[in-house]
Amino acid sequence: MSRSVLVTGGNRGIGLAIARELDAAGDAVAVTYRSGEPPEGLFGVRCDVTSAADVDAAFEKAEAEHGPVEVVVANAGITKDTLLAMMKEETFTDVIDTNLTGAYRVVKRATRGMLRMRRGRVVLVSSVVAMLGSAGQTNYAASKAGLIGFGRSLARELGSRGITVNIVAPGFVETDMTAELGAEYQEQIRKNIPLGRMASAQEVARVVRFLASDDAAYVTGAVIPVDGGLGMGH
Domain Ketoreductase: where (predicted)? Predict the structure, then answer.
């Protein structure tokens, strides 16, 4: 049966690949986007995850279109890379508010209906940086590491209600953002990846599709790396 799915930040990059993958699996997919246009063929709702009112309105629109949300993918995120010595406080808190507190807002709203249905899938998109760290990304790494503690605690809260919560931790992925990196820096990155290449967004999306499927009904509280071996199990 077609399920109602909401993917935040689903109009580009990894989020769009996830939305397309779940749509291809037969789900009814809604995506949120903060700027730009909604992707063709998917139901889009404008939403800034730093606003609880925006999040609530986005769910109301998605539920009116597809019914109660059964799968939520918290993917929306930003980077504001700066060395800590030069980082302004708002540069730190803006990233935390979007990446971590934004996920809290989205998942809290999603679980309202999931608890009534006694079923659901929650997938949080973290990063290999959460485990390895990265100079100039203390704000981003803290936000993505926070998702792991948040997700595992939530998995313990919701397991008895038939709701799974899992975390995907991508490494370097071929997106518009990584395409802007210099060729020399990209080559340096690849040398540190055992598989010797970056991931495609579709490779991350397929792991999310698995975690959202019946095949993963007994998987919860897991952190799944999709990083070509970069993190080596951290």
Answer: 3-176
Residues 173 and 201 sit within 8 Å (Cβ to Cβ): yes
Residue % of the chain over a pLDDT of 70:
97
Provide the 10 A C-beta neighbour count for residue 19.
30
**Domain locations in the chain as residue ranges:** 4-226
Q: Residue 90: pLDDT above 90?
A: yes
Nearest-angstrom CA–CA distance, 147 and 155:
12
State yes or no: is 33 an active-site residue.
no
| pLDDT reported for residue 233 | 64
Superfamily (CATH) of domain 4-226: NAD(P)-binding Rossmann-like Domain (3.40.50.720)
Question: What's the token pair of residue 227?
Answer: 């990083």
State the pTM of this model: 0.95
Among candidate residues 104, 140, 185, 218, the one labeled active-site is: 140
Chain-wide mean pLDDT for the chain? 95
